[in-house]
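hiii so um. not sure if this is the right channel but i have a protein structure encoded as tokens and i wanna go backwards to a sequence. like what aa goes where. can anyone help
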């Protein structure tokens, strides 16, 4: 029995342009995480997935899964870590019937895809997998990547001692199941943690950033639901309809990201603030903002406390605010109170960076401790109690459990 965990992320510069091979900058939101408990179960011949955040639970019989193994998984195995469209299609048509909620369906698809591709049939045994997240789901903070990383890590661990590179490669496949055409920035951050400048298809790999000062930001969750897949495909349609206009805009976004990584490393706050404003404007031009995000920006401007941009795919979800040097504690409290009380948004003040994916072996812990941990995963509804999970499970947190990696 073990738990894997991976953080969410905040894209500071370059969401969407990242999909078009342009550099982007992101950092882990290491206190906002997903956790996956993997338990052997007595019930024979079954693979079980529980997702309390989505009020979703489902079981598949080994017989159902082995039909698929025989006809399709070999294709994936022979091509190593690549997405196999026939396998994705087979999962979709044969294993997901009756799962109509799109959030539940994409979680189940990613779960099954990674399980069937990574765990060879001769070592499969009855398992219960339970996923919980303390980061908001579908909010631009990379929950899809954090569950992909936690799942890839767990399934690879069933077969070998996995490297971070391999976890990241499979997590990218998981992100592809969910998004269609991800850049890979989210899974890379969720795997490695820290802060990175990342360019898709760059053979040199991501470039680690070492900011002179910790990056502190205010995140505001609008609770406006949106889907990354839909937003990314909307930008694709815009690109295809006017490539001569959108390509230079994406090139300009790339320049913002490059200049932004230097400004972050040098802790040049003035420059960071200007680039945040410019990058948000570029994202507005791509059509991915939302009135609910604009009101956070407007409030930041009215109170003159700094600059706000959308973060992640946009269309709702979260905004990222950097405070200027003249913002007083009172101003910031007023900003947060207004967002929380008038609009019922949620705000978090957080330091970016920190731990990537990690593993906790439960066999090394005392029985009462194991019971306490297992209970965290047995919550009945969608409301994961963040404080309880953080107090016990957060890697590097108060309980100081022996997380590794
Ligand atoms: N705790 C979780 N349990 C089950 N599925 C999850 C969980 N967290 C994320 N997901 C999956 O990720 C999807 C959200 O991904 P996405 O739209 O990319 O938003 P984001 O990655 O910004 O949170 C959900 O629809 C769901 O399928
Ligand atoms: C829009 C995009 O740049 C980020 C999506 O992040 P999220 O799923 O909204 O957390 C897509 C990507 O880079 O894969
Ligand atoms: Mg996502």
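sure thing!! here u go:
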């Amino acid at each position: 029995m073990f738990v894997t965990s991976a953080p969410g992320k905040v894209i500071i510069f370059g969401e969407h342009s990242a999909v078009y091979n342009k550099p982007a900058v992101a950092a882990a939101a290491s206190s906002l995480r997903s956790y996956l408990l993997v338990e052997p179960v007595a019930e024979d011949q079954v693979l079980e997935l529980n997702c309390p955040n989505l009020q979703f639970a489902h079981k598949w019989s080994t017989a159902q899964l082995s039909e698929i193994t025989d006809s399709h998984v070999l294709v994936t195995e022979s091509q190593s870590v690549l997405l196999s469209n026939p396998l994705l299609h087979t999962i979709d048509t044969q294993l997901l019937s009756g799962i109509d909620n799109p959030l539940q369906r994409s979680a189940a698809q990613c779960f099954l895809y990674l399980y069937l591709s990574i765990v060879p049939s001769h070592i499969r045994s009855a398992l219960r997998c339970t996923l919980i997240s303390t980061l908001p789901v579908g909010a631009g903070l990379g929950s899809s990547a954090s569950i992909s990383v936690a799942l890839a890590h767990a399934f690879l661990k069933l077969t070998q001692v996995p490297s971070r590179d391999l976890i990241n490669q499979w997590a990218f496949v998981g992100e592809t199941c969910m998004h269609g055409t991800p850049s890979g920035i989210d899974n890379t951050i969720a795997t490695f943690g820290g802060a990175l400048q990342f360019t898709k298809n760059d053979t040199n790999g991501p470039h680690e950033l070492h900011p002179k000062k910790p990056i502190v930001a205010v995140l505001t969750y609008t609770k406006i639901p949106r889907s990354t897949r839909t937003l990314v495909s909307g930008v694709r349609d815009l690109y295809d309809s006017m490539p001569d206009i959108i390509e230079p805009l994406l090139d300009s976004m790339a320049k913002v990201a490059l200049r932004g990584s230097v400004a972050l490393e040098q802790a040049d706050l003035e420059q960071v603030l200007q680039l945040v404003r410019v990058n948000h404007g570029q994202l507005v031009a791509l059509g991915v903002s939302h009135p609910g995000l604009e009101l956070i920006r407007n409030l930041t401007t009215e109170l003159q406390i700094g600059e706000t941009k959308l973060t992640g795919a946009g269309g709702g979800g979260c905004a990222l605010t950097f405070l200027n040097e003249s913002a007083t504690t009172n101003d910031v409290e007023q900003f947060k109170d207004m967002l929380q009380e008038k609009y019922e948004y949620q705000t978090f003040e957080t330091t970016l960076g920190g731990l990537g994916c990690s593993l906790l072996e439960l066999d090394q812990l005392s029985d009462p401790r194991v019971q306490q941990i297992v209970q965290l995963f047995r919550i009945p509804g969608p409301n994961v109690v963040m404080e309880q999970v953080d107090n016990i499970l957060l890697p590097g947190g108060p309980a100081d459990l022996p997380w590794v990696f």
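oh and The pocket of adenosine-5'-diphosphate (ligand 1) is lined by residues 34, 51, 53-54, 103, 106-107, 131-133, 137-144, 147, 178-179, 227-228, 312 (CB under 6 Å).
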